[in-house]
Structure formats: C-alpha cells, structure tokens
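Title: Prediction job returns without error message
Component: structure pipeline
Severity: low
Priority: P3
Assignee: unassigned

Description:
Job completed but the reporter wants confirmation the result is attached to the right record. Sequence as submitted:
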Amino acid sequence: NIVRSYLVYDVAASNPALLKQENEPWAGGTQSQLFTIGIEVDRIVDEITARPPLPEEAETLAVEPGVSVLVLRKTSLDTSGAVAEYSEVVMPGDRTEIVYTTQLDKWAEG
C-alpha cells in the first residue's frame, strides 16, 4: 500500500515528537498522536474509489496493466467538527479485500 497522511503543521508542532520521522510508527496510531496535543477524534469518514493507477503507483504496487487501484480517503474530525487529519491509502485492486461491519444501536422498547 501507499499511504500519505496529513496533519496541520502548526497544530502538530505543539508536540515536537510528532514531527520526527524516527518516532514512526507511533504507538496507538494517529488518534494517539492527536490526543498528545489535546485533540480527540470524534469520527472518521472513509471514502473508497477505484481508478487506474498512476505510473509510479503501478510500479510501486506491482500492478499489472488493466488492474485498478482502490483509493481510501480518510478524514478524521475532532469533537468540534474540524478536520484533524487526512490520509490517503492507495491499494492494489487485484489483492485487496475491504470488510466493513456496521454495529447498530438497539431500538428502545416502548
């Protein structure tokens, strides 16, 4: 997979450890990183699309001609509704499985 993740630099800079590549991967992931600077993630919006790979993506992912890539765009929103983090994951379409479970709240009896 090819992953690109973006945080607001001026916000992340309040914890200099977040800016150091040698600290990756961060224990607890992005949500833990954000929590160190007082940001609580409220929800994550996932968007998944398929498209032909860019030439460098096809090479990096060893995707054969005619095979699409899946692109997962994740937008993490904090408790105020502001975007806290954005990431994009490019995955080879011929060997990626995406499984979602939606837990529903029980209906109130009444």
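Comment from assignee: result matches the submitted record. The longest strand covers residues 41-51.
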